[in-house]
Amino acid sequence: MPDVLSRKETEPDEGPARFNGRRLVRWLTILTIGTLTMLVCWQDPLYP
After folding, report:
1. One digit per residue, pLDDT tens: the chain, 48 residues?
2. Which helix (H) or strand (E) is 29 found in, with range?
């Protein structure tokens, strides 16, 4: 019977690097969205 209960690794095991590529992309995305959100909230309202 095949071992159906064991889960295969989907990603290669990376070492204890502090900043790998995925973490860097994640932080850049969070910072970009946060900066754009702050700019949208702080801009002058458009009065008619």
Report:
1. 555 666 666 666 656 666 688 889 999 999 999 999 888 888 866 655
2. helix 21-42
CA atoms within 13 A on the CB side of 45: 2
Q: Say how many residues make up the chain.
A: 48
Phi, psi for residue 37 in degrees, rounded to 5: -65, -45
pTM given for the model: 0.52
Contact predicate 37/31, CB 8 Å: no
Q: Is 13 helix (H, G, I), strand (E, B) or coil?
A: coil
